Amino acid sequence: MHIALDAMGGDHGPQELITGALLAAEQADVDICLVGDETILAKHVEVLAAGREAGRRLTIVHAPTTIGMDENPVDAIRKKRDSSIMVAFGLAKSGQAAAVVSAGNSGATLAAAVRTLGRLKNVARPGLASIFPTLKGPVVIMDVGANVECRPIHLYQFAVMASAFSRLYNVDKPRVGLLTIGEESGKGNSLVKETYALLHKSALNFIGNVEGRDVFLGDVDVIVCDGFVGNICLKISEGLAESAMKMLRDEILKSTMAKIGYLLARPAFKNFQKRVDYAEYGGAPLLGIKGIGIICHGKSSAYAIKNALIEAVEMERLNINEFISRELADGVTVPAEVV
Amino acid sequence: MHIALDAMGGDHGPQELITGALLAAEQADVDICLVGDETILAKHVEVLAAGREAGRRLTIVHAPTTIGMDENPVDAIRKKRDSSIMVAFGLAKSGQAAAVVSAGNSGATLAAAVRTLGRLKNVARPGLASIFPTLKGPVVIMDVGANVECRPIHLYQFAVMASAFSRLYNVDKPRVGLLTIGEESGKGNSLVKETYALLHKSALNFIGNVEGRDVFLGDVDVIVCDGFVGNICLKISEGLAESAMKMLRDEILKSTMAKIGYLLARPAFKNFQKRVDYAEYGGAPLLGIKGIGIICHGKSSAYAIKNALIEAVEMERLNINEFISRELADGVTVPAEVV
């Protein structure tokens, strides 16, 4: 299986991305097309792949331009058809790659994916899913930013797609929750109330409303919400985790005793960080497109990139898209008035 | 100054609430009317206030019924006019109390406050503000659940009211941010885009859009959003903080070395917890009503109740409501089409 990696995107530059590609090729049966400036990439590959068997599984596909992190996504993908992101999706379109992984401009990656590959049949809106760590297992939240304004049918389809994706975590009958501000069925805004009715009569394993405080408990496998709310949830969680670690570090650095204590407890801290680290879960898959596209955090480490590449391999192996298409073809009949 | 405390609400029972009242009376010049079953309250006061000077600042006002945590708020306040929450707001209405503090059913407290005291002139919708700890100082977020569906004028007024409230933290020209999913002015849903225009031309110190990840950085004093988004932010932050602490504790308990390390670093952990503990910030004020109403977490400790009572004293002392009325009378002219 070939996967295209936008080797120019991300905050840490091509070295980190290429290192991730090598790690993935060492762990799984996968070939990786590094897309980007061939002179730059060849130089890095020469150094990083020296003496590593996995080096033979990397190829370079030239793309002369790149899309910056701050460029307007829609403008950029229209003007820079020869950018690494666009060339990567071109490889997916032509069948030369089964999936695309990018840590570059996420809006541009999203737009390029939908524009180049198109939507799966019957999918009204592709959406971005994100995997959150919880006290028990991971929970898939969708949408986390692709669709700012949604209708009930979109949330229903997010539930179907995210349920299909949760097969990656060996979840048999994924429990689906609807994110809102109270547990009773009447709680929430009008979007939530209408979506509740739709999910309630669907074939999904819908367990009802969930509140913000339930997200990290692990008693639900899939949580649906519109992309505005989902993106704020994602960002606020990241922000809180980072700020809390900073505050804790500040306090520890104030006393020598606390510093010694921290050193003794460090393995526990490391295990904790591993449990909550988004890098463990790869990237955010864009579900509902004809193909596989995974959007990684700009600051992804090589380890996170490796996991995103493995995630793409797994999505292909488990036929997630076929599963989505089948569910949306045979699934619940959606009344015309809510579409 | 007299403050009415719903002495029957909350998960920990009257003891915790009365202890909080005693602590407040020991710290500030305040008299507290404990509202609830007089037989029960008198028994607790006898024990808890024994030998404490502050005991003389407590009085008991009888209320024969209570509203349970799971009762429907609107039904409950209509049917139970003699409940501790309703009697407490009755004291505020008649001028016998300057403020009400409750850790009981929050929906009922909210409804009772609006129903009994009414709105301040020119306030379209009262809203609930919450104080979040950040890397720098506290940030006030409004609305966190009183208004599920909002219009731009409501968010603008939340900004005015929360700015007035932030005087409690000695903030001179509070920096106001609009919670959305991107920093540029065009980012967000239609509510956010229209609110942006309104805030931009207002007299407020509007610094533009803020994202979820900015909430805990402390570079903004006031953040506005609709009550659906705000409530989810509040609950997800609480849930993440609790779950993360549980995970960290699990990891520490796995090794003796880590346990020793934790013991050495415990003062640092305690300081950290103090910095992020909502109990430090009292309760959530309902702003925009003719009076002062503070809603506390059901699981509030005596310490949190004490801080909520002190918060009420400060709100009265600083004339927050007068400030809000003046701002909304002289403030920016809101174009008719957005009201």
Low-confidence stretches of chain A: 335-339
Assembly type: homodimer
Number of strand segments of chain A: 11
Helix percentage of chain A: 40-55%
- CATH domain class of the largest domain in chain A: Alpha Beta
Rg of chain A from C-alpha positions?
21 Å
The CATH homologous superfamily of the largest domain in chain A:
Isopropylmalate Dehydrogenase
> What sequence of helices (H) and strands (E) makes up the elements of chain A?
EHEHEHHEHEEHEHEEHHEEHH
Measured by residues with Cβ under 8 Å of the partner chain's Cβ, the largest interface is:
A-B, 59 and 59 residues
Structural class of chain A: alpha/beta
In CATH, the architecture of the largest domain in chain A is 3-Layer(aba) Sandwich
Gross morphology of chain A is globular
End-to-end separation of chain A: 37 Å
Strand order of the largest sheet of chain A: 3-2-1-4-11-10-5-6-9-7-8
Mean pLDDT of chain A: 92
CATH topology of the largest domain in chain A: Isopropylmalate Dehydrogenase
Please count the helical segments of chain A.
Answer: 11
What share of the residues of chain A does DSSP label as strand, in percent?
15-25%
GO cellular component, one term (chains A, B): cytoplasm
Pfam family, one (chains A, B): FA_synthesis
Function (chains A, B): Catalyzes the reversible formation of acyl-phosphate (acyl-PO(4)) from acyl-[acyl-carrier-protein] (acyl-ACP). This enzyme utilizes acyl-ACP as fatty acyl donor, but not acyl-CoA.
Subunit structure (chains A, B): Homodimer. Probably interacts with PlsY.
